[in-house]
């Protein structure tokens, strides 16, 4: 299911998190749990992976992660403010040290001029660190490819957040 390169990236990330004694949580919308699945594909991931939230609906984003519904109405579910709120909500609703979120338009339908198919917002929150955000525009590469690219981008963002915390310590 996952490319070898993504699994290698996940393995290295989990080892780095274990070395830093950091637990990970995920908050996923358009990936539907694929980030959590990728991380837990690695043997021993239970030492680092704390929990995952699949919050596909707006109600789930609000009730499980505490994303203010007004934020969703104002900016839309696929937006930087919602991605940031999802990551920060996953952090506050878990025992994790780092939480990554993803929300986007995987397609093939559902895109608009402002939010085309392939637009993905990711955020990564870490206790006592600023929340990082990335806006990705993958284009209409097909649903499966957009979701896999989002997993890869999420792993990279966790790596960046982990490095940021090490540099600040």
What would you note in describing this structure?
The structure is a single chain. By secondary structure, the protein is of the alpha/beta class. The chain has a single domain (4-168), classed as Maf protein (Alpha-Beta Complex), CATH 3.90.950.20. It is 46% helix and 19% strand. The protein has helices at residues 4-19, 34-40, 58-65, 69-75, 80-92, 143-168; strands at 24-28, 49-54, 98-104, 119-126, 132-137.
Briefly, what is this?
The chain has 169 residues and is of the alpha/beta class. The chain has six helices and five strands.
Q: Which term fits the overall shape?
A: globular
SSE-based structural type: alpha/beta
Average pLDDT for all residues: 96
Major beta sheet, strand line-up? 2-1-3-4-5
The CATH topology name reads Maf protein
List keywords for this structure.
169 residues, 6 helices, Maf protein, 5-stranded mixed beta sheet, 46% helix, alpha/beta
Task: Please write out the topology.
Layout: H1 4-19, E1 24-28, H2 34-40, E2 49-54, H3 58-65, H4 69-75, H5 80-92, E3 98-104, E4 119-126, E5 132-137, H6 143-168
Parallel strand pairs: 1-2, 1-3
Antiparallel strand pairs: 3-4, 4-5
Helix pairs in contact: 1-6
């Amino acid at each position: 299911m996952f490319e070898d390169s993504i699994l290698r990236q996940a393995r290295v990330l989990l080892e780095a998190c274990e070395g830093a004694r950091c637990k990970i949580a995920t908050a996923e919308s358009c990936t539907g749990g694929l980030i959590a699945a990728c991380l837990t594909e690695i043997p021993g991931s239970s030492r680092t992976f704390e929990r995952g939230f699949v919050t596909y609906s707006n109600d789930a984003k609000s009730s499980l992660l505490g994303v203010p519904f007004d934020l969703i109405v104002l900016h839309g579910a696929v937006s930087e403010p919602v991605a940031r709120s999802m990551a920060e909500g996953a952090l506050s609703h878990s025992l994790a040290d780092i939480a990554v979120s993803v929300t986007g338009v995987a397609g093939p339908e559902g895109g608009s001029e402002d939010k085309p198919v392939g637009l993905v917002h990711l955020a990564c929150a870490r206790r006592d660190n600023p929340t990082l955000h990335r806006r990705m525009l993958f284009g209409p590469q097909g649903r499966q490819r957009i979701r896999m690219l989002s997993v890869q981008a999420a792993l990279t963002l966790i790596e960046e957040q982990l490095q940021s915390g090490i540099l600040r310590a």
